[in-house]
Amino acid sequence: MPRPVSGDGRARCGLLGVPLGVPLGVPLGVLLACCLFVAPPASADDLATSLYLRTDSDSTTVISPRARMGKRFGDATEVDATYAADVWTSASIDIRTSASVRPVTEQRDEIDLSFTHELNSDLTLNGAYRFSKENDYLSHGLTAGGSYSFANNAATLDLGLHAIADSVGRSGDTAFSRGLGTVDTRLAFTQVLDPVSILQFTYELALNNGYQASPYRFVGIGGTGFGCVAAVQCLPEHVPDSRTRHALAVLVRRAFSDTVSLGLNYRYYFDDWSLGSHTVLANLGWNVAEASTLALRYRFYTQGAVNFYQQRYLTLPTPAQYTTRDRELSALSYHRISADIDHEFPLEGGATKLTGTFSLGGSFFNYSQFVGLTSITALEVTFALVLHK
Length: 389
Prior knowledge:
Layout: H1 28-32, E1 46-56, E2 60-73, E3 77-90, H2 93-96, E4 104-118, E5 123-134, E6 137-150, E7 155-170, E8 173-194, E9 197-210, E10 218-221, E11 233-236, E12 242-255, E13 260-271, E14 276-289, E15 292-303, E16 332-346, E17 353-367, E18 375-388
Antiparallel strand pairs: 1-2, 1-18, 2-3, 3-4, 4-5, 5-6, 6-7, 7-8, 8-9, 9-12, 10-11, 12-13, 13-14, 14-15, 15-16, 16-17, 17-18
């Protein structure tokens, strides 16, 4: 089924909260996943439970619970296991223009296993495996990387390599199966400028090869450009099988006192589909009390359209021509503002601590070239609990 636009608020299943518009019929087990750690096993070093909820003006609601357990073995090795789910209900414009008259509800389940190992005081290695499953989508991912500190720990070099194999299906059509492979890498260099300032440069490269369209998205030829409604002819979305992506980012952060710090981040993205984007992020951190921290964040994002995107396709394309009605491939921009507060609750004995997080965020998306939809507003309310030994 068509996936909801996630934007900056794509649920990393991070936290737990209750916004308006939670749909009926969401599995009770999903809503109760945030209560799994009432009696955590004594051997675990970290236990976290969280839930993210998002509702927007395009009739889409996302609920994403998450549960994580981390364990240290000796002084050098740590293993994490995470379960996450995304449950979304949508009657968005993508579904309406596909001639569906009923909202769609789907669930994605994901399991992540990861480890880090400190070879010495300068070199740390890490690896991970991710399994994700929907009724029409299967994904396996592997990660390997490491970080190296030098110059008396004033500089750090981080390298990450990822390989992902996806299998794309179509609900109700057992004969439909397409593959998608992704290989990407991330290289980051972080430099401590002085006792209160850091600077970081990042480069990312991703190579996609395989089926990158949506099996549920169709493009109207002729008509108004509003999906397949009143179109002369309706064709499946057709996009290139390969895509090469690049991203460059710079981050600077400085503490102005013992309680206040400010971070600024700029990211430039471009690919061989001629899509370019700019992202600016500002983050103000404030230790409002001994056990409480407030973070205020603002993000601005803007992008152009891919080279084959058109608001209306008026003539039948040749087999070599590409067509899409994916709003994420059109020109768009968005603003997001959020506030997060963390508070540490003291527990008996002093060796164990409980941290709670509450977050409230709002986003505004603007679509300048997408027929039938000009803007979306979204509300996100999140909470999280982490028990640490």
